[in-house]
Design a protein that fits this description.
about 45% helix, alpha+beta, two-stranded antiparallel sheet
Length: about 220
């Protein structure tokens, strides 16, 4: 189960309210249109306001699940929006009127406390399960994960898309830079580090966020 959150949602919603426009609503609709291409027999999606809940019921489909989440992340970037989220494995029950889910609760905890920046964190219990599980997809050698400071998260970048995602992230920063508080600025800075540190930055392209300067 994955829980995805759109960063800056309240600010963007308020901006629409004040302007009388529906720009943010249109961006959400455009980004979520990528969901129409998913196989509903494998991946189920529920979107409520700024929160997207995506489920995958079969272990054998985990790589397809991760790939769907990667496409969602990139779709939001193309609309000028950052997202973050958590992926967890636990009990989940859903009927017509009732949803009871340890998995959603854990995914929310990961999104709030571990993701922090624009990224989708994978619970370590999933990693451990797939390390020892027989006849399960090999996720640790598939190039679909990153690791930092004890945290596993989804690899969004590839050789083919690095340049596009760098440009999208740069455009988002340029659009937002005049109104960033410290917390929001750090999210941009951290995503830039992810881009620059990537093995796909083969041309050693530099930062788009200005460096700290000494005033003399």
């Amino acid at each position: 189960m994955a829980l995805i959150d759109v960063l800056g949602y309240r600010h963007l919603l308020e901006r629409d309210r004040k302007s009388g426009k529906l720009d943010f609503k249109d961006k959400l609709s455009n980004a979520l249109s990528v969901l129409e291409h998913f196989d509903e027999s494998i991946i189920k999606v529920q979107a409520i306001s700024d929160t997207i809940i995506i489920s995958c019921e079969e272990h054998r489909n985990l790589i397809e699940f991760f790939d769907a989440l990667r496409k969602i992340f990139i779709a939001f970037l193309r609309e000028g929006l950052f997202i973050r989220g958590g992926i967890a494995y636990s009990r989940h029950y859903q009927s017509k009127h009732v949803t009871y889910s340890h998995a959603i609760a854990r995914a929310y905890e990961l999104e709030q406390n571990s993701a922090i920046y624009p990224r989708i964190v994978v619970d370590t219990n999933i990693i451990e399960m797939f390390k020892v599980g027989a006849e399960l997809p090999e996720i640790l050698t598939a190039g679909i994960l990153c690791y930092e400071q004890g945290v596993y998260f989804l690899q969004i970048l590839s050789e083919d898309n690095w340049g596009e995602i760098y440009k999208l992230a740069s455009d988002i920063y340029e659009k937002d830079k005049s109104q960033l508080n410290e917390n929001a600025y750090n999210k941009h800075l951290r995503f830039q580090c992810y881009l620059l540190d990537s093995e796909y930055n083969v041309n050693n392209i530099g930062p788009f966020i200005p460096k700290i300067i000494s005033i003399r």
